[in-house]
Specification:
about 400 residues, 4-stranded antiparallel beta sheet, Aspartate Aminotransferase, domain 1, Aspartate Aminotransferase, domain 2
Length: about 400
């Protein structure tokens, strides 16, 4: 089947977080939006058909998880990662961040230390702070091409701060780093030694680019599995974020009891009907669409790299190992212009381009920008041309 990823779909006035909050965030009405991580493509036709069928039925009552859903989720994860999950491990939440927040409540106490690795997806910090826990940062180390873990610092921070939990992001958001198996094994060894629970956000795991391979943290060993909460969703993979359905896996029986207790206290029980319907259709019929959209997104990565390179831009686009988010290195541009990170962010906004500034993920990412390339190339190219105009200002 041929899929149309080239048509630019107007998402304005659709209550889109990505487009309809421009004015509230200080952007002009014609600003081009590449910030939040949803796609500008229609989702797979099989998903749309399943949702239409549910709408035509016309009754939107309470919904239950049933065997076909469990089977579809289990098959998908096994097929794509080689890791086998079990039905009794599965909880559904409205989103991965909500699932992480529940894990924080279930497996730590107020005042406990939770470790993250900045630059990191900024809701991690918010979830820790808003639950009354303490952030401990073991910063990732930029080597000019990718981020790496400073394992000496990682272990020292855990030991010195009596860390109870580590929030892992794999693939890493914002940089697109995919952690190798030996790196994950080193994390597991340290966390097991110090009794640290690992909450692994693997929502981007279906977007891993060759030759890299996604390794679920819980698949490393039974010991790793027993300290892990794995957070997944079809939302990134199939552009279903607004349907508010994520799958959280807890293999350890004692941990499941604690996690279930927190969900019960929050009155989280029955899943979203439309999210369930869409996820089931996605994991049953969505493979051809996913293969096609990945091919298109990967081409957008290469086009973006070529665009900046061919125009001899001081902005350097890096190809990620995973996700559909591209990391833009603006250090040379800022050096030439004499811009601070704040001035860079202001200039990009004034150019009418809405990106996620690297500083949102931590000061370690100053002078970087995150751009979402899961959109039609012609729309993406318009934004790149506006970014290129920043160089003309720098050379004026």
């Amino acid at each position: 089947m041929q899929y149309d990823f080239d048509t630019i779909i107007d998402r304005s006035s659709t209550d889109s977080c990505k487009y309809d909050l421009r004015a509230e965030n200080g952007f002009s009405d014609d600003a081009l939006c590449y910030w939040v991580a949803d796609m500008d493509f229609k989702c797979a036709p099989e998903i749309i058909s399943a949702l239409k069928e549910k709408v035509e039925h016309g009754i939107f009552g309470y919904t239950a998880l049933r065997k076909p859903y469990y089977n579809a989720v289990r098959r998908w994860i096994l097929q794509h990662t080689g890791y086998e999950v079990h039905d009794k491990w599965l909880f559904t939440t409205a989103g991965v961040v909500q699932g992480i927040s529940f894990a924080i409540q279930a497996f730590s106490e107020k005042g406990d230390s939770i470790l993250i690795q900045k630059p990191i997806y900024y809701p991690f910090s918010r979830a820790i702070e808003e639950n009354g826990r303490v952030i401990v940062n073991s910063p990732l180390v930029w080597d000019g091409e990718k981020y790496n873990i400073n394992f000496d610092d990682f272990e020292r921070k855990i030991a010195d701060n009596k860390v109870k939990m580590f929030l892992l992001c794999n693939p890493h958001n914002p940089s697109g780093r995919v952690w190798a198996k030996d790196e994950l094994e080193k994390i597991a060894e340290i966390c097991l030694r110090y009794g640290v629970t690992v909450v692994s956000d693997e929502i981007h795991c279906d977007f891993v680019w060759k030759p890299y391979k996604h390794t679920p943290f819980a698949s490393l060993s039974k010991e790793a599995e027993n300290i892990c909460v794995t957070c997944t969703s079809a939302s990134k993979t199939f552009n279903l974020a607004g349907l508010q359905t994520s799958n959280i896996f807890v293999a350890n029986g004692d941990m499941r009891i604690k996690y279930a207790k927190v969900l019960k206290a929050a009155s989280v029980s029955l899943p979203n009907m439309m999210g369930l319907t869409a996820t089931l259709a996605a994991y049953t019929y969505g493979e051809p669409w996913l293969c096609a959209v990945k091919e298109y997104i990967e081409a957008n990565f290469e086009r973006t790299i070529d665009f900046f390179s061919s125009h001899k831009s001081k902005i350097r686009a890096l190809k990620p190992q995973g996700t559909y988010l591209q990391w833009l290195d603006c250090k040379e541009l800022c050096k030439e212009k004499g811009w601070s990170d704040e001035e860079l962010n202001k200039a990009i906004k004034e150019a009418g381009v809405w990106l996620d500034a690297g500083s949102m993920f931590g000061d370690e990412a100053n002078f970087f920008q995150r751009i979402n390339v899961a959109c039609p190339w012609e729309y993406l190219k318009q934004g790149l041309e506006r970014l290129l105009s920043l160089q003309a200002q720098a050379q004026a």
